[in-house]
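Dear colleague,

Thank you for sharing your sequence with our group. We've completed the structure prediction you requested, and as agreed, I am returning the results in plain text so they can be pasted directly into your records. Please verify that the sequence below matches your submission; if there's any discrepancy, let me know and we will rerun it promptly.
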Amino acid sequence: MTEDASPAVDLPPGTPMGDAELRFTSSGRPFVRTPDSCFADLPEFPYEPHYVEVDGLRMHYIDEGPRDGEVVLLLHGQPDWCYLYRKMIPVLVAGGRRVIAPDLIGMGRSDKPVQIADYRYLQHVAWVEEFVDVLDLHDITIFVQDWGSLIGLRVVGNDPDRFARIVVANGMLPVLPEGFKPLQLPDTLEPDDSLVLPFTEESLQGDWMEQFQNWARYALVGTSFRPSELLEFATVVDLTPAELAAYDAPFPERIYMSGVRAFPSLLNTVGDAPTNEHARRVLDGFTRPALTLFGRLDANMGSDAAQGQIRDRIPGAAGQPHHAYDNAAHFIQEDVGEDLARRVDEFMTATVDVAG
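Please find the predicted structure tokens below.
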């Protein structure tokens, strides 16, 4: 990139380029690509990277298991990446499944647009839809959690015929009125050194929307924000220093963090038109198998109300072996990943005659 071109890029304040190389899509969107060296020697993650082009950006994914196996699509949320699924992948592959775990744009090994404004809820939905289309995936069993559920369930609602089954773990599909913006965000993106991770054991007993608003502000402008601190807080298991470092690996400098910083604020774009209303109606008529696997130690997305959005409303969820773990928190894949995968595998086997 030349100095003459740099003023056209709307970098967030306090985000120097450092050693990052600024690239551009053919449409002019600026992005950065995390160096491969950042992903060397990750613990328990020996998987070969794969890439497809989505909207002019390189999107990374793991593709393990037999090519002719039933497809399991694992969608992560924020602030993590497909490393979150390292405990589930081997179990599902051992069951003969083809396991595909992408990194959302802006996360993991996928390309990272640097402008905060380039991230919106429906843009993430479009990126995942293009990913599924480019890989020509069908008869998909989709496993979603956190923002992966808001994105993935909207993708299902937009094109339900691609999907054989739905599995939701600590997630939901909210329907917000068109144009509704529930969060009060900072007036400026200037870095704020005073903010700290807003979650404590006490705060989790308080008002969820106030708590989430504080989280969105911190992620957006807090200078100490790192993905590892939330992973450490919102898991029951004790993550090792190497595992925590793996969650930070995609973001060696702040220039790489626009996507992960913006994600909580995207709640204000969930009400963009077209809203989730149509997708919700499609899910409420989805007769193929649907399963919930929730961690009860997540006070919001592990609640009975969140589970009920799937368990009690989707016809295909009737009679399925839903399960709620008393020993799992928000990042349920870390706490009980192997058992989650076993339950998904058994669910797929038991519903093989009704998922088509």
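Summary note from our side: The domain at 6-350 is CATH 3.40.50.1820 (Rossmann fold).

Kind regards,
the structure core
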